[in-house]
Write a structure and sequence with these properties.
The radius of gyration is 17 Å and the shape is globular. Helix 1 packs antiparallel against helix 7. It is α/β, with parallel strands linked by helices. The strands form two sheets. A seven-stranded mixed beta sheet has the order 3-2-1-4-6-5-7, with helices on both faces. It has one domain: Spore Coat Polysaccharide Biosynthesis Protein SpsA, Chain A (Alpha-Beta Complex), CATH 3.90.550.10. The relative contact order is 0.16. The protein contains seven helices and nine strands.
Length: 204
């Protein structure tokens, strides 16, 4: 199985701009990427980083500055083996959670993200192609059904939680002890309980 990890190497995590400046967003995104790649390695697979620009990391890097869908579909078209696409910002991912996906039956295995996204795709059929625009989890199910492909959805809190918005940092601090959580703690972030009992993050 070929595992690719898409990564925006130019301007990552813009929706965190209210809390992190450009350099911090770059470094936090790198912490998530490297942690995710090490998690993939613990499943027995070597990840390839599918980056929008050249990147100095310890794993193979494939540079493709096209849209996410175009870059991933180019990989799917070239490989004659199953391809897993694992997003780089899954800061809660564990080897066990990924192995549930890698071991699941089906021509196409999907992990929904919150808000209609698709956080992991495992394509075992050569005709399947992705479309990350809009409500991608619905589109991926429809594409698989139209091609008469057997589809399995894996329900996983750890893999459905991608880090895009400030509220997502709370989940990282509460449920992870990996490098992204350590980075946040080292940069003054902590969980705060509001007067209404809801949680948020504060930065000292």
């Amino acid at each position: 199985m070929y595992v690719v990890v898409p990564f925006d190497a130019r301007d990552p995590k813009t929706r965190l701009s209210a809390l992190l400046d450009s350099d911090e967003r770059q470094r936090f995104a790198r912490a998530m990427l490297e942690d995710l790649c090490r998690t993939v390695e613990q499943t027995g697979h070597e990840p390839t980083v599918l980056a929008t620009a050249d990147l100095d990391v310890e794993w193979p890097v494939r540079v493709d500055d096209r849209s996410l869908s175009a870059a991933v579909n180019a990989v799917l078209a070239e490989r004659d083996e199953p391809v897993a696409v694992v997003m780089a910002d899954l800061a809660l991912a564990t080897p066990d959670a990924l192995e549930r996906v890698f071991d699941a039956d089906g021509d196409v295995v999907l992990v929904p993200g919150r808000g209609g996204g698709t956080n992991v795709v495992l394509a075992r059929h050569p005709d399947f192609r992705v479309d990350y625009h809009g409500v991608s989890i619905r589109d991926h199910r429809e594409r698989a059904a139209a091609a008469d492909l057997a589809t399995t959805s894996v329900d996983s809190f750890r893999l459905s939680t991608d880090v895009d918005d400030p509220s997502d940092l709370t989940e990282v601090l509460l449920h992870s002890d990996g490098a992204p959580a350590t980075w946040l703690i080292d940069h003054g972030f902590a969980v705060e309980v509001q007067s209404d009992g809801m949680t948020t993050v504060r930065r000292d």
